[in-house]
Amino acid sequence: MFQPANAQSLIGVAFVLGLCWVLSENRKRFPLKLAIGSLAIQVGLVLLLFGLPRLDAAQSIYNPLYWLSAGVQGGLQGASSAVEGLGTATRAGTSFVFGFLAGGDQPFDVTGPGGVFIFAFQVMPVILVVCALSALLWHWKILKWITRGFGFLFQKTLGLRGPIGLATAATIFMGQVEGPIFIRAYLDRLSRSELFMLISVGMACVSGSTMVAYATILKGVLPDAAAHVLTASIISAPAGVLLARILIPSDPGEADDTMMEAEEKRYDSSVDALIKGTGDGLTIVLNVGATLIVFVALIAMADQILAVMPPVLGEPMSIARGFGALFAPLAYALGLPWSEAPTGGLLLGTKLVLTEFTAFIRMSALPEEALSERSRMIMTYALCGFANIASVGINVAGYTVLVPQRRAEVMAMVWKAMMAGFLATCLTASLVGLMPAVLFGG
User: Fold this and answer.
1) What is d(CA 79, CA 71) in angstroms, rounded to the nearest whole number?
2) For a tag site, which of 168, 334, 364, 380 has the least CB within 10 Å?
3) Is 340 helix (H, G, I), strand (E, B) or coil?
4) Mean of pLDDT values over 179-198
């Protein structure tokens, strides 16, 4: 049932929307209809995914809710299977080349499952597969029709055009670099607002290749961890669209859909598409990998400098701890009790500075009394996004390859997009905090 703690999460909703409005490039053009529609979509999706009765043998097939529940669960299962299928196919190739480093049979007993997940061998190769697959589908004209279909869907719900709608949907499952690959031919024709939105949504969601890892990490500390991680990535997309539109309102010319008639990228044959797509993916992988190494190293250097300072509360200072103290009030606004807010703030700071992967690992290692089950669920939604400092480098590197002529634009917007993505997951967490615990089995 609804409790005072649920109402507390309204503070988070108001704070996120208010902050983005204050920082907007045009505060007179607040997208009120989009705000209402986006929040309604998020709440509706949560109710749809968790509020419907689960299928039961005794449930009447004549009850409309039975078929609606069946459709929802079937859709979730199908999407999860597709994501897992892509990951499995990719692992087959990477395991053949890299062996146990890429998820193949381990030559020794594994005592730390989290340590088996190696980003370079289990996440980055997905970029290669998606690049090759998207090039092939583009050559076969399949993506053109999918683009038009998503264009209709998102035009009616979020007011997005076809290409940006397709990339937004692809980003939910494929990731912040892989999603835009699907509309590479259109990237140079996106408006400034649309380009910013695409980067923001990429940072508000996670990729299918990492969902499995997150669910595995949280399996022992959060019931239905896989369902929550998948749902978090899906419902954070409308939040990313909304906050991006508030920060950089849409351009008047976006209503013109002439970009659909743009000259399309062409390949000589299916083999040519696969070869060129793989080559493009390799360039992106190299750029992303090199940039990640540099950004993580710079953060480690900064922490070493801060460690020279006197300890605070018995622990050395670090960038993550500093952000943790800063974000404690935000964690409270999301719906955490004040006694748990410092821990939640530390996790938010860890996510921003050291990636959400590290934050999830730290949350799974917390003592049971550190966070209640409700707080762990809220933090799962708050952490489930790519908005972190390293992603700034990933996006700059990725978009430099995908659309080099707009590199300066991307660099000028990417930090603001990181903030939009970070706040989008906070908005999602606040909305989940508003929901009665009974929806989630509590």
Assistant:
1) 12
2) 364
3) coil
4) 85
DSSP states of 74-96 as a string? HHHHHHHHHHHHHHHHHHHHHHH
In this prediction, residues 145-169 reach a mean pLDDT of 72
Strand partners, 312: 315
Asked whether residue 256 carries a pLDDT value surpassing 60, the answer given is no
**For position 437, what pLDDT does the model report?**
60
Residues 6+ apart with CB under 8 A from 391: 176, 202, 203, 355, 418, 421
Indicate the angle between helix axes 162-174 and 142-157, nearest 10 degrees: 100
**CA nearest neighbour of 191 among 238, 146, 249, 246:** 249
Determine what percent of the chain is predicted with pLDDT higher than 70.
75
CA 375 to chain centre: 20
| 8 Å CB contact between 20 and 246 | yes
Q: Which residues of 57-90 are buried (b: 16+ CB within 10 A; e: fewer)?
A: eeeeeeeeebeebeebeeebeeebeebeebbeeb
Q: Which residues contact 48 (CB under 8 A, 6 or more apart)?
A: 72
Q: Largest Cα–Cα distance in the chain?
A: 69
Q: Are 378 and 337 in contact (CB under 8 A)?
A: no
Q: Is 40 helix (H, G, I), strand (E, B) or coil?
A: helix
Task: Report the alpha-carbon angle 73-74-76, nearest 5.
Answer: 65
**Residue 3's pLDDT band (boundaries 50, 70, 90)?**
low
Between these two residues, 215 and 268, which has the higher pLDDT value? Answer: 268
- Show Cβ contacts of residue 216 under 8 Å, excluding neighbours closer than 6 positions: 113
* The pLDDT value given to residue 104: 61
From 2, 39, 44, select the one nearest 17 (Cα to Cα). Answer: 39
Between residues 191 and 108, the one the model is more confident about: 191
**pLDDT at 24 > cutoff 50:** yes
The amino acid that residue 120 corresponds to is A
Structure tokens at 322: 């500093």
**pLDDT band with cut points at 50, 70 and 90 for residue 20:** very high
Q: Which of 72-76, 109-113, 150-154, 159-163 has the highest mean pLDDT?
A: 159-163
User: Token pair of 379, please?
Assistant: 């933090």
pLDDT at 383 over 90: yes
The alpha carbons of the chain give a radius of gyration, in whole angstroms, of: 21
Residue 55 Cα to chain centre, angstroms: 29
Kindly write down the DSSP assignment for every residue of 208-275, as one continuous string: HHHHHHHHHHHTTTSTTHHHHHHHHHHHHHHHHHHHHHHHSPPPGGGG--GGGGSPPP--SSHHHHHH
Contacts of 428 (CB under 8 A, 6+ apart): 42, 232, 235, 236, 239, 381, 382
